[in-house]
Amino acid sequence: MTFDDQFVGFTTTTNGAFQFTFNIPLAQPGQHMVKATTSFPTLTATTSFTVLQNPSSIIVNLTTGAIYFPGDTAVIYITTTGAGTPVGPANLQMQVTLIAPNGTMIILTANSIGPGLYKSNYAVGSKATIGTYAIQVKAHETGFLDGSALSSFEVKPTWISSNGQGILMTATLLGALGTVAVGIVARQKGYFGRRIENAPTLSFSV
User: Whole-structure pTM over 0.70, yes or no?
Assistant: First the structure.
């Protein structure tokens, strides 16, 4: 048995028929020749053999902001390419999953904004869980190997919410210090317990 005249092995026949399995040698995609030859008498049988090109994988890339705050909207951009060209939106199946810090999974909608380019939004609620959120994207299209990508962003408390107690304590302290300062100035000026000298007198006659 030969493949493009390269020897690949022997086999035996049974009632004029045989089966032979071999690994395809390194070959370019396209048609190739498989040949079976007997030693005596010399008989030759040939058939064509097609080597298919390995399917390309869908390359998925996604980008998003690193940090968001409660009340923000997380914006996610996704690109899909295969064999160096954009893949989709026609016939492309995409799943975008958001995984919250507590393990909750949320399916997001990916909207096409161009060949191989998609956009997805997630509204970070005012009471959203603080922590790291994961984004997983899976893409499938016939003729390509499936592709996937993983990214993340962090939700942090706003500056006011995280420093609210300190702000309240500072305001209270400043208010108390202001009251004490006013009292000290009033005492230095002698406003407390000071008698009014040379106060005018009023007389009435009937």
Answer: no
Q: Give kind and range of the element (H or E) at residue 165.
A: helix 159-188
Structure token digits, residue 149: 């990508």
Residue 145 CB neighbours (<10 A): 12
Q: Which two tokens stand for residue 181?
A: 């300062």
How far is 83 from 115, CA to CA, in rounded Å?
A: 14
Look at the chain and count its residues: 206
Q: How far is CA 57 from the centre of its chain?
A: 19
CA distance 177 to 61: 57
Token code pair at residue 113: 């904004």
8-33 pLDDT tens trace = 888 887 887 878 887 776 777 788 88
Structural domains of the chain, with CATH: 2-51 (no CATH), 59-155 (2.60.40.1930)
- In the chain, the amino acid numbered 161 is S
